[in-house]
Amino acid sequence: MITSKFQLQCQAMQKLDLKSPFNFLFVFLVVITVFSFVPSSYADRIITLQKVSDVSEESLLNTISDVSKYSQIFPDNVKYVKVLDNNTKLVEMNAGINGMFFDTQAICKTDADGNYFVEVVSGDLKGTTMTTKLEKTWGFHGQKDGGTVANIALDVKTSGFLSWMISLVPDGSLADALGYGFDKFVQHIQTT
Length: 192
Fold this sequence. Notes:
This protein is α+β, with helices and mostly antiparallel strands. It has a seven-stranded antiparallel sheet with strand order 1-7-6-5-4-3-2. The protein is globular, with a radius of gyration of 24 Å. It starts with a helix and ends with a helix.
């Protein structure tokens, strides 16, 4: 009778005694070796969004770039923000959603073109970037330069436990969250 390749492999696995320290160590090392070649970043998604607001470009840029007020603007999502280095614009924040909060560090700065740029430099979101480009437009009530068009690009990179969680979130939900955050900035400007 001809034995299939699968049957031979099954017989070989049955003969492998994992109670033996040598065999257990061998299997353990093989598993570690295989998983060491798996990249640590599992999710890489780009979400883009365009929003128009009835606030000036200057006031919007000033509010977005003032990270010290994030815990006031997002009281349910940001516990604290600390500026660690004024030169590099490195900040540490404790942020999250639904009771799950993470400490992370990011560089938050305005570039030479007036775009606001955030790059996460630690944690499960390390490598994630968000660029917000602002353009003046007419305000909702006809005033010249009274409104702002914001083009937001979020490049999400995750690893570890967060990559598994974020893979379950549809792009539309991430775009909605971006829009919600942008609307909170606009609300803050309009109420202060």
